[in-house]
Amino acid sequence: MYSAKEASEITGLLTATLRYYEKEKLLPQIARNNQKYRQYTDEDIEWIKMIQCMRMANIPIQSIKEYVSLLVRGGETIEQRYAMVQNHMKDIKNQMANLKNAFILTQKKLLFYEKLLEDPSCRSISYIEEWKLFNHGEN
User: Fold this and answer.
1) Same domain, residue pair 85 and 106
2) Which end of the chain is more exposed for a tag (fewer CB within 10 A), N or C?
3) Crossing angle for the helix pair 42-56 and 15-23, to the nearest 10 degrees
4) Quick check: 65 and 26 in contact, CB under 8 A?
């Protein structure tokens, strides 16, 4: 069993976030000790890590709530959960493609600025001139 502080350290989340997840019913009921302090199990920690993974994939809290609700209901909801995970997979692939495009553009912009920094005369160009230089591939 882990205290809220220990669970926070293990997961890297603030204790306030852990309480929020519990309040929003993203977690199963967390056990309490005699002093009413939360006591997290290894299973609770794994559950929290699953939620963290979903949040990192930008899955909205409401969708996570829906998924958790279905999960708790058991085998009768496997088809619904499968469909949800399929949709999330599509979203993640789109996010990855968008991030790849952002990375490529940022990399080009970084190289562009490296070249500008080598030329002292470029310190006086306007943003319009810079925009034209960058957009016309003269970088």
Assistant:
1) yes
2) N
3) 90
4) yes
- Per-residue CA distances from 108 to 24, 54, 78, 88, 135 (Å): 42, 31, 45, 30, 11
What's the CA gap between 20 and 103, in Å, rounded? 33
Residues 6 or more apart whose Cβ sits within 8 Å of residue 108 = 134, 139
Q: Which residue has the tokens 């957009």?
A: 135
H helices of the chain, where? 4-11, 15-23, 42-56, 61-73, 78-118, 127-135
What is the number of domains present in the chain?
A: 2
How crowded is the C-beta side of 80, counted as CA atoms within 13 Å?
14
Predicted confidence (pLDDT) per residue in 53-83, tens digit: 999 888 999 999 999 999 989 999 999 999 9
Q: Which domain holds residue 31?
A: 1-73
pTM of this structure: 0.69
